[in-house]
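Why do we care about 3D structure at all? Because function follows from shape, and shape follows, mostly, from sequence. That is the central idea of this module. The next example makes it concrete: a single protein chain, its amino acid sequence, and then its structure expressed as tokens.
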Amino acid sequence: MSSRPPFASHSSEPVRRAEVTIRLSEFEIPPMQDVLLVGKRAPIGPEAVRRMVDALTPDQYDIIYLDHEIFEAAVLKRSLLKFLPQEKFLPVILEEGMRVATENTVVKAQVNIVVQVNRAVDL
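And the structure:
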């Protein structure tokens, strides 16, 4: 067991943390939020969502097709992925979405990501 604390204050390496706040609610019109989770048996499928997204806000969302027990696709606002990479963000949003959604629903999520950076400099 090491006696050094995990984040020594004299380290020159920046410490980065991300806080993720997720608000989940039922899909409504207008439909665009930060994230849409499309259930496997939802009234609209990923291709309909793609056409809607391309018509309303071209080039602002990515549609990710999923091999998932409940969801067929996730639609993610690209600007969020500048703060948190998809491979870290998607599992979180799917885990929380599973708690409120079924295969028959489309869930929208408002997401607020705050990135904290602490840096130390030599004096």
